[in-house]
Design brief:
With 297 residues, the protein is α/β, with parallel strands linked by helices. The protein has two domains: 229 residues, TIM Barrel; 49 residues, no CATH class. The protein has 14 helices and eight strands. The structure holds alpha-methylisocitric acid (MIC) and magnesium ion. Alpha-methylisocitric acid (MIC) binds next to α3.
Length: 297
């Protein structure tokens, strides 16, 4: 029974059963419900998503562990699908990172990725990123591995080294992270399919391709990525970007036209919304539980 598995074990099962495993960004509990219902096997809480959607901030290391935990709990409270969480640089030194991992597990996350950027981080697809030394990154991974209580909790090392130091250096860092116990490698902001090939043939660990829009990496198809050796494909903010554009059109239309008739087609209907929420099942229960109350009145 899959519910008897820990979140980490569910993530590993999904990875074993899907090649590649597509992981879609869900910025809140409701979008997680939709992703689960349409059949996704893994979902993602983006650091950029928490900053942008929940706090109206840019993705520049301004959100805290507790900000992210709050969003995780909302999502893991609503769905069973294993959740990969972006923990940025881990929010501090080894002891902080250790706390982070324990809190992630407690909140129901299945997996995390921790990156080798400096604390004053940027989006991985922006210029002028700075990274910590390989040794410091290895210490981050060791702190993660040492802190987990469920051995299936999945710890992914993200390297942002490609932009400044090139492919070989990035692979070398990834190798050091695997030796330190990382379960997978997030090859950030590479620009060619061959780069994934190089990671996957050099390393004995699953590789994640981050297919984020308007970034450094082309929007490769999952079959091309599978052929190039990617085991996971991430779509961190795809639904969020689409939701934002739809919302903007609605706000502008209401202002310009005085009603929303022209944009109703962009909207999920009341019944569609209720269906994802199992609204009717709740309502039936309500009627059954409160039947006596009704007749009392
Ligand atoms: C994956 C990522 O870390 C995120 O926070 O979602 C971002 C995505 C993006 O900004 O498009 C990143 O790649 O740095
Ligand atoms: Mg991020």
């Amino acid at each position: 029974m899959s519910n008897a598995l820990t979140p980490g074990a569910r993530f590993r099962k999904a990875l074993a059963e899907n090649n590649p495993l597509q992981i879609v960004g869900t910025v809140n509990a409701y979008t997680a419900l939709m992703a689960e219902r349409v059949g996704h096997h893994a979902i993602y809480l983006s650091g950029g998503g928490v900053a942008n959607a929940s706090y109206g901030l840019p993705d520049l290391g301004m959100t805290t562990m507790n900000d992210v935990l709050e969003d995780i709990r909302r999502i893991t409270g609503a769905v069973e699908t294993p959740l990969l969480v972006d923990i940025d640089t881990g929010w501090g030194g080894a002891f902080n990172i250790s706390r982070t991992i324990k809190e992630m597990e407690r909140a129901g996350a299945a997996a995390v990725h921790i990156e080798d950027q400096v604390a004053q981080k940027r989006c991985g697809h922006r210029p002028n990123k700075a990274i910590v030394t390989k040794e410091e990154m290895v210490d981050r991974i060791k702190a993660c591995v040492d802190a987990r209580t469920d051995e299936n909790f999945f710890i992914m090392a993200r390297t942002d080294a490609f932009q400044q130091e090139g492919l070989e250096a990035a692979i070398d860092r990834a190798q050091a992270c695997i030796e330190a116990g990382a379960d997978g490698i997030f090859a950030e902001a590479v620009t060619e399919l061959d780069h994934y090939k190089a990671f996957s043939s050099a390393l004995d660990a699953p590789i994640l391709a981050n297919i984020t829009e308007f970034g450094a990496t082309p929007l490769y198809n999952r079959s091309e990525l599978a052929e190039a050796g990617a085991d996971m494909v991430l779509y961190p903010l795809s639904a969020f970007r689409a939701m934002n554009k739809a919302a903007l059109m609605v706000y502008e239309n209401i202002l310009d036209k005085g009603d929303q008739k022209d944009v109703v087609d962009l909207m999920q209907t009341r019944m569609e919304l209720y269906d994802f929420l199992n609204y009717h099942q709740f309502e039936e229960k309500l009627d059954a539980l409160f039947a006596n109350k009704k007749s009392d009145q």
